[in-house]
Structure formats: structure tokens, C-alpha cells
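Late entry, evening session. Most of the bench is empty. Finally got around to the prediction I had been postponing all week. Sequence below, unchanged from the version circulated by S.P.
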Amino acid sequence: MPTVVFDLDGTLADTSGDLIAAANVVFRGRGLGDLLNPKADQSTAFRGGRAMLSLGFGRAGPGYGADDIKAGYPILLEAYGAAIDTHSCLYPGALEAVTRLRSAGYRTAICTNKPEGLARQLVDRLGVADLFDALVGADTYPVRKPDPLPFRESVRLAGGDPARAVLIGDTETDRETARAAGIPCILVTFGPDGMGVSDLAPEALLNGYGDLETVLAPLLPAPA
């Protein structure tokens, strides 16, 4: 069964506002104020909590480093979980596109570097949990993307064959995951990096979810 695997943050949903808000909770707790900007720092938000903390503490000055990131990370996760869907929303057409894939017989899954519990909480709040046959997060297995194991397991859990799958994402991590798994990668261009993701040489670019089937067709044969 062909399987389409989606990254979550920056691919299915714009979660940057809530992620940055959670990081700023950490900085405010240290008396540093809001060090990240919801618009200018979107790209960093989609690279994870530690990346946001690293950027913010780097702006705070040379007195902050790895220990501050380590101490701040659980605080960020707690703050994020408490307000996970204040600003987050699905990208236009994502709900309809996944629904069409499932109606056509594709298996669908999520493979994200967000902790599994938070990922499940978010997709439930967004009302799309039932549209995915499997969800694998950063802590589901001992390794995470770009290691190919989480991707392959997300396909297997969805009832598919890892050799008949494609990964849709938005960052270099997704590109490297697909390369390591030996499968095609589609990168979205509607994230903060825009057409810049073309520099990562994915097999295809997705400009909007209305084009998904057209972009997918040459890479993954439709279900029989």
C-alpha cells in the first residue's frame, strides 16, 4: 500500500507562533524579555525547541550557553503544552488534501521531531487525528529524523511498505531523512524559507495542497 508521510510543524500546520511564545516564556523567566520574534524567527521555530533557545540565548550575550539551553528546554515544553493551539493552524488545503489521499486508498502518517505526546495533543486539538494511520515523534524511538528509522516505522505502523512511500516536509532534516531512507522527498514552499528549499534538491516542490496529487503522481504510484 503506498504511504504518504508528513512532517508536522511547518508542513501540515503553522505552529511557529505557539512555539516562539513558549521559548519566550523561558527567556522572560530569566529576566531577558521576549528574545524571539514571531515573524522573523519562524524558520528557527520549525527547527525545534533547542534551536530556538540557542538563538535566543545567543542574542542575550556570551554569558549564556549549553547549560541554559538544557535547563530551559523542559520549561519550554511545559509552556508549549499549556498553550499548544493558541495560534497554530493547518495550512490552507491540508485537511482536504489528506482526506482526498485517504479516499483514493493511500495510507497516511506523521513523522515529526516534536515529542510524540505533544504531537498527538496538537493533531487532536486541530481535529485531524483520525486522518492518520500512524504518528511517530522525536521520542517514540531512541533515534529521530534524519535517522531513517522513525520514518520507516511510521510507514510500517500505518500498514504500508517503506519502499513505496514518500516524505513531505519543509526542512533539511526532512530532505536528509528521505535520502537516508532511499525514498522521494517533497518539500513545501509555503513555509518561511519559501522557494529557498529548492536548494536542498528535493525530488519535488509543493506550492500548495491543491497541487498535491499532481506533484505526488510521478513519485508514488496510486493504489491499485
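Two things to note before I forget:
The CA atoms of residues 172 and 200 lie 7 Å apart.
The mean pLDDT is 97.
Will write this up properly tomorrow.
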